Amino acid sequence: MEKRQLLIVSNNQTFVNEITNRVNANFEITSEKSIHVAFNIALNLLPDIIFFDKTSYNKASDFRNLKNFKSTHFLTKSFLIVYGSNEDLLVMKKRYKSVIDEYLLEQMNLEQITSVILKSYNPKKFNYWHECFLGLFNLMAQPVVLLQQDTIIAMNDAFKKTFKLDKTEGLKLTDLVNIENKAKVKTSLRNFTRGKHMKAVTTTSLLVHNDKLRNAKISFSKLSRNIMDQFIMCIDFSGEEYLIDKKIGSHATQVEKCFKDNSELTEFSFTKREKEIISLLCKGYKTKEISEALFISPKTIEKHRSNIIKRTNSETILESVIYAINHNLVDIPIS
Fold it and tell me: Which residues of 132-161 are buried (b: 16+ CB within 10 A; e: fewer)?
């Protein structure tokens, strides 16, 4: 019988050795003192149980990243135990109620502790193929979601990071679409799930976070014609290639048109002054030179630059200039 995986996070090597001696017949045991390193080990090991010895860490902030240990699809299946003082556990119950599965008081003896470890791992029943699918799409670097019409049933880790979501329950795809007539999107997706076409590939703009728009190529694909109207959506922000093979399956043109219309509705254009500044930047002008050419203060120019960066969801003004040129939002100066 294959042994289960136990990860012990503790600064007390004697304590680790005592637990190891008692449970090593049932577990492959890995121990680590650094909490940061322990997280990386957990990502590689995917342990059945993670045991945190809070008694061997003095600072209250030592476990501030505890939520990371349940932050990915793979680690949510780990059973997380925290061993500590009554005072520490009361604090952690408030902060990490949704993360910690079992609390053990430091007054417990080794026999009681190991008994809990041996009994605690009781995997919940799950749909094997569904879990395989969720595991696979969490490996993808692109944001991917599982949809039922416009309701998001599941999202991969890349999607959560890209859209910087604090709350994921009850989220709908229409929440990420900046369109006046969101009902049109919802109706289009409903028709797609019930129709004969297996895919749709189109472009649109999505609300990433803080009301910032970002253009994307998106691909919808049904998992099956008989899977409760569920389908996946892949997002490609690179704009280099589509994620779905064009030769496979028939296209749902109504979905493609709907999202393309949404992109056109939300597409912005730069102001006249912003276009002037971008054009001069393309010529290599510095802030002072732009100030002299347009007869406006450097402070005003910096404000315009900041607005350009924010509206194009870029990190630097160079990225914004490239974005503007690629989307034909400014006239490229010809020397």
Answer: eebeebbeeebbbbbbebbbbebbbbbbbe
